[in-house]
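@channel sequence for tomorrow's demo:
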Amino acid sequence: MNYMICIPSPNTVSHENCEKIHNIMARISETYKVKIVPEPVKMKSVQNPDYYKKFRIYKEIKDRDGNGEAYLLPEEEEMILSVCRNAQEEELMRSCTYAYQYPANLVLKSFREDKRDRK
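structure tokens (generated this afternoon):
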């Protein structure tokens, strides 16, 4: 099964921010009826706090077409941002790292720059 990964930015790791991201993920799961599984972030160089989680978002993802597209699909951007309740939550979700997990590799994705710079 393919899935998308969401990893909160290490720059925003605080108990409060991690709780906000967890709540946003719960709203995404409920609104879009997708399975989201939190799991600990493991880094070799640093011991991460227990509340720092990455999220597997189980959903249909576009087959890799080899065009080097590094951006989330508009539907994915909408899914992530539509449940945010304020600009702070939107910025928190934009700062996360997103990736598609394919059977053989991981492909990083991001928000389009024009949407990232909106405030």
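heads up for whoever presents: Residues 72 and 109 are 6 Å apart (CA to CA).
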